[in-house]
Structures are given as structure tokens and as C-alpha cells.
Design goal:
With 456 residues, this protein is α/β, with parallel strands linked by helices. The strands form five sheets. It has a seven-stranded mixed sheet with strand order 12-13-14-11-10-16-17, sandwiched between helices. The protein has a six-stranded mixed sheet with strand order 7-6-5-8-9-19, with helices on both faces. It binds NADPH dihydro-nicotinamide-adenine-dinucleotide phosphate. The site of NADPH dihydro-nicotinamide-adenine-dinucleotide phosphate has 24 residues, from helix 8 and helix 9.
Length: 456
Amino acid sequence: MPYQTINPFNNKLIKEYQTHNDKQVEEALATAHALYKSDWAQGDIQQRVKVLHKLSDIMSSRVDELAKVVSVEMGKLIEQSRGEVQICADIAKFYAEKAEEFLKPVPYKSDLGEAWVEHHPIGVIMAVEPWNFPFYQLMRVLAPNLASGNSVIVKHASIVPHCAETFEKLVAEAGAPKGTYTNLFISQDQVATIIDDDRVQGVALTGSEKAGAIVAARAAGKLKKSTLELGGNDVFAVLDDADIDKAAKAGAQARVSNAGQVCTAAKRFIIHEKVADEFLKKFTEHFRALKMGDPLDKSTTLGPLSSADAVKTLSKQVDDAVKHGAKLHFGGKKVSDNPGNFFEPTILTHITRDNPAYFEEFFGPVAQVYVVKNDEELVKLANDSHYGLGGSVFTKDMNRARKLASQIETGMVYVNSPTDTAAELPFGGVKRSGFGRELSDLGIKEFVNQKLVVLA
Ligand code: NDP
């Protein structure tokens, strides 16, 4: 795949980027590994968290400029891009403030003597990242690994090279030595070669199941640990006692934010039969009120999809769903009188288990609405999924909410809120949504040597 910036709002090619050759890949590996062996990585954490503080300050002070880079390259609404830049600054600050505490030695009581576990970096981490949050995904990997002393090499998605290059420059500007964070415009074969290299000791991927399976298998073949953050088909459950106005508004936003291209977006709306008609009516009104347009225009509420291919895939999925008996309640088509990658906000109902749509993730503004009779049926339907990333339950009854939250098979459940993210909270899933966690104290422990020392 060529590395190109194409504005999804009008499909105009802005820039094509030169790829890195094998010699440059070897140089990147050598530099990253030498840094890991140096006092920078093995020594005092304060020198590394200083860079994270600076990076946070830089990003906070340049929100407008950086947000524009995101919006022009992958079509995110400008306010959402601003939010993405700000959360990156928050993540950098969080690890700057907390990493030392997370990585301090943990004492263990034992009859064998005085014992503790200390935390050490393990080497170079290879990260493969997607385009949907083109800065946030990078920061999730960089911040904890920079703090712990690992070097990071990244292959970003081929449709967001400007974000990739910009982020690398920001890390350097914050004072990180060469090799801390290296962006490479490389092929899938070159990624495989890097994973095979002994200097690489961990692999992190966010993206599709297909890419995750290939990359994790490659890592496993060399007995290396990987973390995977893959797709999701998150449930947005609305119980019969929920505040329907609030649920309909939050649900619509949770489906169309980032034009629906979010792994933890609400995708399957499971509604109690007593409130199904009212919910669907109000939910549809929110979809009807969406205004498609330029992501840089603040009045736009639904931006384009990230690429022309994404529109093709989504159109085919919706057509197939309808062929297999789903009812098109709202929308359903690519917007044809526009050069950009626009797809109508869409609501599908009457999806049966034999419809391929039942198990598929729709990476765009397409909601599936299901109706259930009771909580038992809700849990059964929610868990009848290959995925297990996030999920939401809307209800006024907190006991019912707690019970459902523990019964739903996902890595995250939010009550009376769409699935969200924050630096201090773990992020990740189960089943085909992947394994491992990013962010929080759990994220920084994924790629460290938790070394036991016993003084007998
Ligand atoms: P991909 O999984 O193909 O892309 C994600 C990243 O993986 C990109 O950097 C991509 O590079 C890279 N990649 C893909 N295949 C390989 C491979 N064999 N070896 C090494 N690197 C690889 O996602 P798409 O962008 O194609 O999106 C397809 C679907 O994936 C979406 O519809 C959605 O379901 C899911 N997805 C989920 C995301 C999430 O947040 N969990 C994010 C993005 C996508 P390149 O760009 O060069 O192909």
C-alpha cells in the first residue's frame, strides 16, 4: 500500500510519502536497541518522564494545529480531533505523573526470604496502528513504553502518514533521544521481518481481526508476547426503566461519533420491548438531524468515512443485511452526489441470527436495533457475539445494572454512558476483540520484565 494523504472530504490526493527501505529499517532497529541498552532506558525514570511532561505540554499548546492534521487526513470532525489531541496530552501527563509509582518494586511475603518484584524494560516494541484515532493510538503505546524504558518502532496505517510523521516529530521535539520512537513507512513483509528480529521483544497491534491474527501469529512463532486491540460489536442496552431521552441521544452519538469508525462504538442496540417504539422514534430523530459536511466546519455533525474503500465495504454489508431479511428503517446508501466518502446514517431492524450482519462489525454510521423481552434475553443476545470489547447499559436501577455489567462478556461495561476512555482506566477486550490491556497501571505492565528477587 502506498503511504498517501487523501482528504476523505473530497478525495483529493494531498501528498505521497516515500517508503523506508530495508537498510533504513536496520538502522532504526539498531538505534532503538542501542538506546534500550543505554543509561537512558536502564537508568533513572525521571529523565524519561520529563520528556512525557514536555510532550503533554506541547500537544496541549498546539491543539488547533494538530486537530486540523487529523481532520484533513482521516475526516474526523474538528471538535472530535481536538478532543483526541487533548486526550493524548492527558495520557502523556498521566504516565509522567504515575509511572514511577506503577513501576516501583512490589514486596511479596514468603518463607523463602525477603522477596520483591521489580520492573525492567524488555527492549524494542513493534507497534502496528490504525487510522481511526491516528494520534491517540500512538500515544497509548508510546507513553507507557517511554516511561518504562522500552524503545518503540511504529508502522502506522498507510492512509495517515502525515499524522505518523507529525507524531514522531512531536516526540523528538519533547526531547526524546533518537530511537525512543521511530515511525517507519514500511510494508507488511517488513513488519514481519522486524517482528522476527531478536532485538524486538514485544508486539502491539490495534486494527482488524485479520491483521491481528497475522501479526500475533508471527510474534508467537518467535515466542514473543503481543497485545491485540481488535474490533468490537458493542451492545448498547436500554432497559424498560431507562431515561429514554438520554439513552436515545447518547446512543445516537455513540454510534456516529468519528463517523461510526470506533472499535468501542455502540453497534448493537438491544432495547427492552416496553420502550422499544419510543426509543426507536427518538433515536431515529437524532439520526435525521445529523448534518453531513466538511469535518473542518463546526456545524457538521457527521463527517466522511476515512476512505473510498471503507464506503464500499459498508455499502456491501448493508445491502447483504437487507438481502438476508433485515429491514432498512432509516438511510442505507452511499451519498452519491458528493465527491467525499459519505454514507447515510443508517438504522437496520429485524436482523435474525442467520443474517451475516448479526455477527459482523459495521465500521461506519450503521446501527442495528434488536428488541428483547427481559434481562435474560438481553444477556443471551449480548453475549452471542464473537467480539467482547465494550458495552453500555442504560437503566435507573443500579442493582440491575451491576448484575448485567458482570454478566456481559466484554472487557469494559459502562452504565448510563457510552463506552469511553481515559488515561487512568484500562482499555481492552476478550474473545475476538483481542487480549491485553492498554492505558492505566495495567497497560504499563504489559511489556516489562516483572523480575522476582529473593534474598534467602
Ligand atoms: P487493518 O487491520 O487492515 O489496519 C490496521 C493496521 O494494520 C494498519 O497499520 C495496517 O497497515 C496494518 N496491517 C494490516 N495487515 C497487516 C499485516 N498483515 N501485517 C502488518 N500490518 C498489517 O484495518 P483496516 O484499516 O483495513 O480496517 C478494516 C477493519 O478493521 C475495519 O473495518 C474495522 O473493523 C477494523 N479496525 C478496527 C480498529 C480498532 O480500533 N480496533 C481500527 C481500524 C480498523 P496498512 O494501512 O498499510 O494496511
